[in-house]
Amino acid sequence: MSLDPIYYAISWILLRWHSLWDAIGIPDDRVIGTTWAWILAIFFLVVTLRVILFPVFVKQIKSQRAMQALQPKVKALQEKHKGDRETLQKEMMELYRTEKANPLMGCLPMFLQIPVFFGLFHVLQHLKPGLSDESKQLYGWPLEQFNSAIDAHLFNVPISAKFGSSASELAALGADGVTVKILAAVLVLVMMATTFLTQRQMILKTGWAEDPQQLMIQRLMLYGIPFTLLFSGALFPIGVVIYWVTNNLFTLAQQQWVLRKFPPPQMANKGGTSARPAAGTKTSGGPKSPVQPARTGGLFSRKTEPEPVSPVVDTKALAPKPGAKPVNPKKGARPANKPKG
Q1: What does the alpha-carbon distance between residue 3 and residue 335 come to, in Å, rounded to a whole number?
Q2: What is each CA distance from 112 to 54, 119, 194, in whole angstroms?
Q3: Phi/psi of residue 157, nearest 5 degrees
Q4: What is the tens place of the pLDDT at every residue in 141-158?
Q5: How confident is the model over 269-307, as pLDDT tens digits?
Q6: CB 164 within 8 A of CB 241
Q7: Dihedral over Cα of 85, 90, 94, 100: its sign
Q8: pLDDT average, residue stretch 232-239
Q9: Burial 160-181 (b: 16+ CB within 10 A, else e)
């Protein structure tokens, strides 16, 4: 399957934003070693895509909250099928099907952005000097804008350079290897940190999953992806790293706004302790009410209820039956003995 449509779409958005900043009067010359018209074009490429994907982001939030609401049922299944992993997985799949919940929906926005990421990666890799005019105009690039993009820099580092650029590539771009590596290393660390923070922000708001499969996905998103960026980041052009960091910052702001405006249930009920009473209230409405003492006081509550009752029953049993009146047990015993004498 050809990715040319994605390359054309990414190029078109970049070129439109660059043309807009050029029309406004932002020059292609470097200011503080930076070609701001192209940096802003990459920044607003992120904004454009996030606006397009906003409905998907809302579905992601709803899916995560649906999964959160199912946690009491998930935990009940885990306790019921403890040690039987195959049956547990079947019951979990059936639960998700009947409740119309999808554990993978939480990853959907990221999956949809992967083609965009590779599209931008390919387009920036294509920005090389020495190409023929025909090659420069590939993906709808005008010659003037292609030559301008080749000369685009961030703090005197070409946006098409990367940490792992070879000496020949750096020489063709007219870049200093030490400066490129320092800036690329800083940006990769920022990329890792912001990736970690976006996942941590969501998990802190919604809580860790009870489902082992969902928990594994959460841990992979939180720790695995930032760690892999430590190595793969060396292969990303500076422009791609700018895109990734900008996307993470946008995600942080978007998630904070959504979670404040529409707080999840756990924010009001304090995580796992609230989920259990909520599930218990459904099952304790009738004859299953004995579950309630186990939640409120554990085993001690079950023992303390019979203890005050049993001494009362035992003291009555030990007292003489004719003198069962609790006021004057002695007076009740004397009349009972007089007739016998």
Answers
A1: 107
A2: 12, 12, 19
A3: -120, 125
A4: 999 999 999 999 999 999
A5: 444 444 444 344 444 443 333 333 333 333 333 333 444
A6: no
A7: positive
A8: 90
A9: bbbbebeeebbebbebeeeebb
CA dist 138 and 214 (Å) reads: 43
- Three-class DSSP category at 148: helix
Residue type, 29: D
For residue 237, how far is the Cα from the chain centroid?
Answer: 26
CB atoms within 10 A of CB 295: 15
Backbone angles phi, psi at 158, to 5 degrees: -60, 140
Tokens linked to 32: 């503080």
DSSP per residue, 22-57: HHHT--SS-BTTB-HHHHHHHHHHHHHHHHHTHHHH
Lowest mean pLDDT of 51-55, 161-165, 212-216, 296-300, name the range: 296-300
The amino acid sitting at 286 is G
- Contacts of 111-116 with C-beta under 8 Å, sequence gap 24+, read 112/53, 112/56, 113/49, 113/53, 113/247, 115/3, 115/6, 116/6, 116/10, 116/49
CB 267 within 8 A of CB 203: no
The residues facing 162 across adjacent strands are 237
DSSP H helix total and E strand total for the chain: 18, 2
The owner of tokens 């005019």 is 133
In whole angstroms, what is the distance from residue 231 CA to residue 248 CA? 18
Closest to 115 (Cα-Cα) out of 219, 254, 8? 8
Calpha distance 109→54 (Å, rounded): 9
What are 139's two structure tokens? Answer: 């993906």
Q: Beta strand pairing status for 157-158 and 153-154?
A: antiparallel
